[in-house]
Amino acid sequence: MSFLDYFISALLLQAGYNSALVAVGAGLLGLSAGSAGAFIFLRKRALVSDAISHATLPGVGLAFMIMVAFGSDGRWLPGLIIGSAISSAIGLILVEWITRKTRLTEDAAIGAVLSVFFGFGIVLLTIIQTMSSGRQAGLENFLLGSTAGMLISEATTIAVAGALAAAFVFLLRRPMTLVAFDPEYAATTGVNVRNIDLAMMGLALIVTVIGLKIVGLILIVALLIIPPVTARFWTNQVGPMIGISALVGGISGYIGAVLSAAEASIPTGPIIVLVAFGFFMISALFSPLRGALASALRHQRFQRRVHRRQGLLALSRREPIYDGLTLRILRRSGMIRRDGVATLRGRTASEKASRDEARWAMARRILPDDSAIERYDGLTPIERMMTSDQIAEIDRMLAEKQGASA
Amino acid sequence: MRNAELIAEAGKIVDVAGKDAPLTVRGLTVSYGNKPAVFSVDASIPAGSMTAIIGPNGAGKSTFLKGALGVVPRLSGEVRIFGKPFHEARDRVAYVPQRASVDWDFPARVIDVVLMGLYGSVGLLRLWRARHREQAMACLDRVGMNDFADRQIGQLSGGQQQRVFLARALAQNAEFYLLDEPFAGVDAATERAIVSVLKDLKSEGRTVVCVHHDLSTVPEYFDRVLLINVRRIAEGPVDTTFTAENLQETYGGRLAATHIDELRLA
Hints:
The complex is a heterodimer.
Chain A: H1 3-11, H2 17-42, H3 46-54, H4 57-69, H5 77-101, H6 106-130, H7 141-144, H8 152-171, H9 173-181, H10 183-188, H11 193-211, H12 220-232, H13 238-262, H14 268-286, H15 292-316, H16 324-332, H17 344-366, H18 371-374, H19 382-385, H20 388-405
Helix pairs in contact in A: 1-13, 2-8, 2-11, 2-12, 2-13, 3-5, 3-6, 3-11, 3-12, 4-5, 4-6, 5-6, 5-11, 8-11, 12-13, 12-14, 13-14, 15-16, 15-17, 17-20
Chain B: H1 2-17, E1 23-32, E2 35-45, E3 50-54, H2 61-68, E4 76-80, H3 86-89, E5 93-96, H4 110-115, H5 130-142, H6 158-171, E6 176-180, H7 188-203, E7 207-211, H8 218-221, E8 224-229, E9 231-237, H9 238-241, H10 244-251, H11 257-265
Parallel strand pairs in B: 3-7, 3-8, 5-6, 6-7
Antiparallel strand pairs in B: 1-2, 1-4, 8-9
Helix pairs in contact in B: 5-6, 6-7
Family (chain A): Belongs to the ABC-3 integral membrane protein family.
Pfam family, one (chain A): ABC-3
Subcellular location (chain A): Cell membrane
């Protein structure tokens, strides 16, 4: 069977029960990572999850050693997950503690905790390699993830935990939104900001430890960050953003696991991350809302609107127009005739443009530090940018000014 | 001796505002690091009043509000809201933070922010219904922003952002409104719109407290003042408390005497 054949049959869950279960598990993991990551991204704590994931490594090593000491082969996944959860929780508490109790900033605390824990974990793994008992081969797969030889029980554990984490995100969506947007206000409405932050980081921790086997601890942070960043390109609302983020994470996990099952020599984590990155690139380029292509098109449209506006203002002041592009745009939109004389439509539009211009000029005078002015592009009709009472105020000032000059 | 004085004074405060006053604060101290931003401040806000908290920059006006509402931890002091600890009276209070305190590039529409005011009254699992949307739209209407409901919050001007924050607080349908600098950096039309909403709230028997920095509008907008400069300088009705002496004491050399005279005339 060729790689492509295998890939397609695996994608359709027809490459055997085991690989189907692994793919579904990876999909649910991605779903929970995408939805939890969305809130972590909105709360601007993405780097904390990097500290959490690196802090899992000593836990993996110690759990292995303890299990071996009790006579098992040390590879029981729930045991390794519990160990990693404990050590990354300690890492998380340390970051919080350093930030609160010393004058160090959070990024410094993250850097310190991340590197120390990871270093300690690597030392433990090296010691484990020299141990005579236990089945240490493949333990390094926790760094980059691997689905090869994964047990059905392991895939089920991951799938169930992933689904639970996603349900937890749904339950806490409102308090987490509130805390991410406006923590001070949240506190006055009875939301315990500290607990919500802890829950958010707890979610990151859960996603990390259940993702150890599939994605690996080095790259799990990518699965928490790339989906929400991708989703942000497509929407300006929290709800849809969470949904898109979960979807991107889920599909990336699913496709990545399938690809990796088809070509077992590549670690799973990097493939999943690359698939997610593919979604990111497509979004960054082609999203109609915030993508690069759309903003280039918007800029071109903006340039045309500037020309049109300048042309209309020139018409209203009865000044001649020389710019070729301006003339073309006005002619094409039926504002002027071939000989350059304004049509009825052109005269109406130029009057409106001139009134808008006067209002904006007044707005700039009476609203000196208002952000509507900062974003004023000289083109948007003022009715779209200001409330009716704001416009009434501007018109009143204009009338006053005209009265004074008359 | 000092204690006896304090108790006597505390008794007086209770007399002025009543036992279940919207806000009673005794000896509130809040510090950032080891420097008190607010030191041992007493205050009592009677029901149905409209109070301006006034003081120079860095005098702890905003910190006083945040300390009273438990947004920042208290070092000492006692706060009662309607005669109860804050967490028992939370449903009766709405807070409007400074608009610069949030990131307006957050993915939300105007209506989404107003709906946040209803989070407290809607269960965790419940979805939004038409009734909630109508409630939020009614609040937007009160601040003149119903045409902006579906607008991205990042596209709003400063004054419009302030109106949205006020609408969110209105959605809470509280009895006691605390606003942090609601008039900072807003246009004249927005200032009028906000004042008119606040006066409506007062006429409905609700209580309003604003951190305020424009001395010239104090007599026009408010009926009580609380003068703070880390410590409490004075508190009471505008007529008797908003005096040149008290302002001089609050602002020190930062306010010229002639300027104060002008204010009294206005």
